[in-house]
Write a structure and sequence with these properties.
about 50% helix; six-stranded mixed β-sheet; about 650 residues; about 15% strand; 4 domains; Transcription Regulator spoIIAA; single chain; alpha+beta
Length: about 650
């Protein structure tokens, strides 16, 4: 569980300034050390999986920690390489002709690596410009289900590419082909390496449950336990020396190719500093990767920073524009010395909060511990088996593509599950960019089928009018969907957070409100509350949600009302109708009628009784009172009720007067 805030006044909320550094030194350095234990193996694993040298990810984490601590106002985020960017970085390395640094390194691998550094530097410049222009809100353009689908697809790709490595096999080919080859990888696995990989996987999956019963040891990260177990296993199998062994008549080879490549002396890390190959940017396809680095990296970083703000027990808010600028500056420096792209990383940030960090200096301490470790003892890091690192990434992949993601999206609405699955299939079958576009196209198609006018796809129709001195009404027309959300948000923030007004958002005139907008409105309500203001959402009574989930999409339908039909004694209908109108009836119709009474004998004339028929339309909430009133009336002969959808209403006010027909 996250740490609970201290019972201090608001003025004493921890801040990352000189006073905060002194006051919270103990909490921040302890948390920084614990995060370092998680970050070290993950940085190495992500770097190798991305086709970079083993220390590329460590360079990134060090630079991010030492720069963003002072450039960003984000108190709890940990900056560093993320598994979510592996697919993009590796894709760029491969298109530039490289194969990565896990095996035999060739000049082509080095050239590809340096070319990608140039791509990263160009993307970093765009990030800096993006932040300086205060364009951070553009990160909210993408639909929520598409973003989740993209991350899930990345998780599947990580699993497909790292599972063979955990078994001692080479992972070559696209993600779908690798997934189909999993049975083959299992059959042909190197037993010694597979033993290390499977043991590491078992620890990663079991440790979150086991640690809850270990008291003070519950803060020890699973990654550290994996290292404690896998390094002795690697020594037992003598991976540092090349040799063969036989199992069941099959001969297998072991060598240091199954270990992490590291400098063999103190300060050897500085020999791995590399510089961008700038002429790579003259190739047209390089700019596709610049765009992906920039868009996906910025989007992931912003989403992570917002998520961490919600986890922060002190509810401190990150300035996303400032944070994006800080990440861009750190990315530029990292690319200039051989580092991976970085983001605000959610897993390490959550651990930082759970470990009791108070200020952003915990991020700095984690970077300093990384620097001391790789500078002073890199020769010992060489004994870390690649299979153990691959197991950590497989576990990370399963977190990104966990089955609960499918269940959660289904609960939000079946149409969101369709978008989610379409994005995953698109990414796996093509590439990240096309897959995300496929998900967005499916989302737009669903919206058009639900009645969204084409004219409102990218342009919201808003009316703004004051209600009183402290409240403003914003009325939306036609639709409120992901593609026109940014202008809606700007209007709400301008009227509310900037002008210090409470805001009432009326959605009654919209035909469709999508899941992304519903989720973002709920998040914006929290922002208003944090500023002592109120954002009230009204006008959704005639919108039918696609599920019971609070964030479900909503489509406006004909209003559902209760229709009450009563047969009453003639002459009483006027008085009863007036009672119904007083109780809130929307519509009341009185029609004279006659009732034929049953004859006692066949030769008797049928008795005709003059009656009146009342037809009443009422809102569902108030209809019960009307029914009870009619049941108690002695003049009522028959009373029945049903629920109807009103397709057309001729009323112009809240309710009508009695309509009598002859």
């Amino acid at each position: 569980m996250a740490q609970q805030p201290d019972p201090r006044p608001l003025s004493e909320i921890p801040r990352g300034n000189a006073a905060g550094f002194r006051r919270y030194f103990a909490q921040d350095i302890v948390s920084g050390f614990l995060v370092f234990l998680i970050a070290l193996p993950l940085c190495i694993a992500i770097s190798l999986a991305s086709g970079f040298p083993s220390l590329g990810g460590v360079f990134t984490a060090i630079i991010g920690a030492l720069l963003t601590t002072f450039l960003s106002n984000s108190e709890m985020t940990i900056k560093g390489p993320a598994a979510g960017l592996i697919v993009i970085v590796l894709g760029a390395v491969e298109q530039f002709g490289g194969r990565g640094f896990s095996g035999q390194i060739t000049p082509a691998d080095i050239d590809a690596y340096r070319s990608v550094l140039a791509v990263g530097a160009a993307a970093a410049v765009l990030q800096i410009a993006f932040g300086r222009l205060r364009a951070g809100i553009l990160g909210e353009f993408f639909p929520t289900s598409t973003v989740h689908g993209m991350l899930a697809a990345i998780g599947v790709i990580i699993i497909a590419k790292q599972f063979p490595v955990a078994l001692g096999e080479d992972a070559k080919g696209g993600p779908l082909a690798l997934l189909l080859q999993i049975p083959k990888f299992i059959v042909e696995a190197n037993p010694a390496i597979a033993t290390i990989g499977v043991a590491s996987l078992a620890i990663m999956f079991a440790w979150p449950t086991v640690r809850q019963h270990l008291g003070p040891l519950r803060k020890v990260p699973g990654q550290l336990i994996v290292l404690v177990v896998s390094i002795p296993m690697g020594l037992f199998f003598d991976l540092a020396h090349s040799h063969n062994y036989a199992v069941l008549g099959h001969t297998y080879q072991l060598s240091d190719k199954f270990l992490v490549k590291m400098p063999d002396r103190i300060f050897g890390m500085f020999e791995q500093v590399a510089f961008p190959k700038w002429d790579a940017l003259t190739q047209p396809f390089a700019w596709k990767w610049v765009g992906l680095f920039f868009v996906i990296g910025t989007l992931e970083s912003m989403l992570s920073a917002k998520a961490v703000d919600l986890l922060d027990p002190y509810r401190r808010r990150t300035d996303l524009d400032r944070d994006t600028t800080a990440v861009g500056v750190a990315n530029l420096v990292a690319a200039l010395v051989g580092g991976l792209p970085m983001i605000s990383e959610i897993v390490r940030s959550r651990a930082n909060i759970d470990n009791g960090a108070r200020t952003r200096f915990a991020n700095m301490w984690h970077g300093l511990f990384l620097l001391v470790c790789v500078a002073m003892i890199p020769m010992y890091l060489h004994y870390v088996p690649l299979a153990a690192l691959a197991a950590m990434l497989v576990y990370t992949g399963t977190r990104l593509a966990h089955p609960t993601e499918f269940i959660n999206l289904y609960r939000v609405g079946r149409e969101q599950l369709i978008v989610f699955v379409a994005t995953i299939i698109g990414v796996l079958a093509t590439d990240l960019l096309i897959g995300v576009l496929i998900g967005m196209v499916v989302e737009v198609a669903i919206q058009l089928l639900n009645g969204v006018p084409v004219t409102s796809l990218f342009r919201p129709y808003l009316d703004v009018e004051p209600i009183d001195e402290s409240t403003t009404l914003v009325r939306a027309h036609k639709s409120a969907i992901f593609s026109n959300w940014i202008p809606v948000r700007r209007a709400l923030e301008s009227e509310g957070l900037v002008n210090r007004q409470n805001v009432v958002l009326d959605l009654s005139e919209t035909r469709y409100v999508d899941h992304s907008v519903m989720e973002k409105l709920h998040a914006l309500q929290h922002d208003f509350e944090e500023d002592g203001l109120k954002l009230e959402i009204v006008g959704l009574d005639e919108h039918r949600p696609n599920s019971a989930h609070a964030g479900a999409s909503r489509r406006r339908v004909a209003p559902r009302m209760r229709r009450i039909t009563a047969t009453v004694i003639a002459g009483c209908e006027q008085e009863l109708a007036q009672k119904m109108l007083d109780l809130g009836a929307v519509h009341c119709l009185a029609t004279p009628c006659e009732a034929l009474c049953r004859r006692v004998a066949p030769e008797d004339e049928p008795e005709v009784r003059p009656l009146a028929r009342l037809e009443i339309l009422a809102l569902l909430d108030g209809a019960s009172t009307m029914l009870q009133t009619l049941k108690r009336e002695p003049t009522c002969v028959v009373v029945c009720a049903d629920v109807v959808e009103v397709a057309l209403s001729l009323t112009t006010g809240a309710r009508t007067e009695l309509v009598t027909t002859a």
